[in-house]
Model the fold of this input.
Amino acid sequence: MKTFNQLSTEEKNQLKQDLDQRYESFRSQNLSLNMTRGVPSPEQLDLSMDLLTCVSSNYRTENGIDCRNYGGVDGIPEAKRLFAEYMGVSTDEIIVGGNSSLTLMHDTFMRAMIKGIDADNPPWSQQGKIKFICPAPGYDRHFSICNYLNIEMITVEMTDDGLNMDEIESLVAEDNTIKGIWCVPKYSNPTGITYSDDVVERLAAMKTSASDFRIFLDNAYAVHDHTDTPDILMPVLDACRRAGNPDRVYMFGSTAKITFAGAGVSCMAASKANIDWIRSQMIFQSIGPDKINQLRHVIFFKNLDGLYQLMRKHAKILKPKFEAIQNVLNRELGALEIAQWTNPRGGYFVSVNTPEGCAKEVVAMTKKAGVMFTPAGATYPYQNDPMNRNIRLAPSFPPVADIEKATELLAICIQRVALDKMQ
Amino acid sequence: MKTFNQLSTEEKNQLKQDLDQRYESFRSQNLSLNMTRGVPSPEQLDLSMDLLTCVSSNYRTENGIDCRNYGGVDGIPEAKRLFAEYMGVSTDEIIVGGNSSLTLMHDTFMRAMIKGIDADNPPWSQQGKIKFICPAPGYDRHFSICNYLNIEMITVEMTDDGLNMDEIESLVAEDNTIKGIWCVPKYSNPTGITYSDDVVERLAAMKTSASDFRIFLDNAYAVHDHTDTPDILMPVLDACRRAGNPDRVYMFGSTAKITFAGAGVSCMAASKANIDWIRSQMIFQSIGPDKINQLRHVIFFKNLDGLYQLMRKHAKILKPKFEAIQNVLNRELGALEIAQWTNPRGGYFVSVNTPEGCAKEVVAMTKKAGVMFTPAGATYPYQNDPMNRNIRLAPSFPPVADIEKATELLAICIQRVALDKMQ
Done:
């Protein structure tokens, strides 16, 4: 088979005709498919139904605390122990919170804005213009927090082993208004990349001009492997400690994609100094998280092994969906050399790069045929993909048949738009 | 019986001896009683046990939303309807949140600090020194938020019908750095006072020099009546609307003292303009509250009448506890005219005023005998009760026998300290 560039004018015209015909055939189906967000499917949620009823009369913690009542701002003891193990930290390096790790991240920004990241540094909001490094493509809700707080975002393109550390090291060494970086270190949203050991060690060790620089490490897919040979992330807090920067990283996690997306448990891990600083301010915000829901999770998981077993059940549901994408993209685009896509071993997304300048038009075209993908550009700060090429596929929710249809349509639209652009 | 001032020196000496003896007898009991915080008792929490298991396979909202999954930043439809009715507002004037109304209040401050209270006013954090009016005695966690944010607190003494409106009107008319006021309008913490209609109307109508002035109205005890003739609070948002200041008030509520203190549902009500402004920022903080827990509450209550029925059960448990305090204080101090205390028809607290300059010593003295009351001063901004006289009693948690003991000890200590001070 020929690559796209090898096609003659005649062949291109023929292909265009074929594609138009196939596109019209999709349109006539009146599809309404949604591949926009990384939400678990009902079958995945069904795996955790026991969570709903596993706490009834057994509402006390191991040390006798009545979870129905007030108190315990940083979580119940057994949840702190379980999630400390999950995050690879000790129990004085963790806070277990409510149902949303996004809330923990957002609130950590708000406190940094108002109070600074420790007692020695001024509040971020009192330092004039500040900036954040945003590896991209990345997670739109991370970028939204920066945008909301008028924090200037510096886009750094993701590489195959995670981050362009040369560029990042040089940026943070020179500019003391750069206060941090967003990271999704494992099965990154949307590229599926896991940071190499070298990337982790350089992040931990790099010289930062700002004395109040922080890594916001959203480890949302820490155990979200699809295979038996999962990616392994070097423990980041340990790396920071070895590099002499123990306070550099805030790590976030949640069970949103383990139990219930809307009713899980979130956690935040960091050095004891960071945790103490944050806990000392959380007491003004809450008398404590929902302890019953934390207890539900501990009872439901039993232990970390129970959580891993659950993740294997998720993998069984997710794997065919990711395989469907690969199969269709390989079949439709494999020989053409006009698009690249990731084939992650875990996480919730596949990242597709169209030819430059095509992504917006492709997504608009699939939308007209009833298939919604994440808006082109959404994976970049300011919704601005400078090459207008990245499209995020989120296959977790729809059934396999729908994913196959949606991906086929995507492949048709990529070719059709590319044909116009490249003529 | 004589009043305290009518006692002869000899009688005072005799009383001192008696009190010392009684105090020693208390000390010898090695008591360990806690009357510090307004936490529900286990019997109260037991009233809501059905909440724990009332959602299992029925996890969908009335409009088919899967509560296990992501979404719905301002609450599920049926919860918004129920809590709108509870707060006396419409469904576009309410946000239903997580387990803590303190969080809603704190976060509203944080947003006001960073973004201002609307699009027309600058952020509070960019206006130099700002101030808040803090009616006192009041709730320490309200004052803590101001203190945390370096908002200067202006103490205004509570009156018998709620607020000293002459003083408040004059303050807010003159000083545009006063950005708001804390209010607990019904069964106020700790005085038990409910604002009169006149107070509500003047709060709603008063001229404020600041264009970004807000009432933070913590209606924590809205339905927490102990009697069949409850206090009735004039609807505050309606009053603000009538006065032409529809955006003046943020109202907060929660089921912390209706169902589970640690695992309830919170809500915030305000004008549609306020709610829209806040919701537009909440989307950066969360993909949604715990919708399952909201659904649990709707199913458990059935409707507002179900909630009221539950409150009558709470009243049955709480009433004897509040009566115990009145009985003991009347018996021990009734004739002496050295202390005043409130006799609220609802809420969670009794407020005691000792003779001036005695409160700290009284609380220290009860503590030495094993009975903890809320630290003296805690009910005032900066923990500074200028008359050092206010003590908050929180009788909800301990059993009646313990409350009787603790209150008797308190009465002994008040007399004993007063004897020393007044000689």
The mean pLDDT of chain A is 97. The CA atoms of residues 56 and 320 of chain A lie 37 Å apart. Chain A is about 40% helix and 10% strand.
